[in-house]
């Protein structure tokens, strides 16, 4: 049920999108709107998405967040969330990311699924996801909560497009039949030092479970994942803060690596 008016939803969408575009922190919105419901939170996210599309931006993918225990424990939120990826979030592999355009970015080691068939919840399971997947490809997400000190609750982070800001994909793709997605290892290095390691099963027991959950959450709003969709499954390990001048490489078992630099 929605507890906020249409006007409040629009105002909060503008408030959070401006914080994203001009890179400044705001207080978490449930402090001022404690009555906000989950439906309101998703309405705000979808209004931000609508505003970007109205300005001519293309939505190029979706992301799940808070799907591993490492992330849930790090953020103190024990339920996954989703967000959208806009065209200008995409950074080429090996590219530069402008730190000054962001507030307090962190990087995450993820995988992305690219679909060859539509997935529409409810009732989507891992088997459906594996059948509908064209290929899996490495991805690194840069997250940047618009909230002060990167602290939020689930409703506030959903409204803030689940902290989405940049992503990089690359390395080598492979169909799921050629991968052991549960044991698939990732090694994250910052400035040449190993800072995080993990395996695919950290994400909801199996990476495909994250895509299934997204299809089912979208189904609650009558939305689906079209054939061709690019979906990031959520961080396998805890996220790592980055500073200007830092470079990073994430190695993926059987799938190559992704690197980039904060300038
Ligand atoms: C929310 C987004 C989390 C992930 O991969 O878990 C996320 C946050 O931690 O700011 O993208
Ligand atoms: Mg993420």
UniProtKB/TrEMBL annotation:
**Fumarylacetoacetase-like C-terminal domain ranges (all copies):** 104-262
Name of the featured protein: 2-keto-4-pentenoate hydratase
Q: Name one GO cellular component term.
A: cytoplasm
State one molecular function term (GO).
2-oxopent-4-enoate hydratase activity
Q: Which domain of life is it from?
A: Bacteria
Alphabetized UniProt keyword annotations:
Lyase
List the source organism. Marinobacterium nitratireducens
What InterPro entries does the database record attribute to this sequence?
4-oxalocrotonate_decarboxylase, Fumarylacetoacetase-like_C, Fumarylacetoacetase_C_sf, Hydratase-Decarb/MhpD_sf
What residue range is the signal peptide? none
Keyword hit for Transmembrane: no
Q: What is the lineage of its organism?
A: Bacteria, Pseudomonadati, Pseudomonadota, Gammaproteobacteria, Oceanospirillales
Gene3D superfamilies found in the cross-reference section: Fumarylacetoacetase-like, C-terminal domain
- Record's keyword annotation contains Lyase: yes
Against Pfam families, the record matches this protein to: FAA_hydrolase
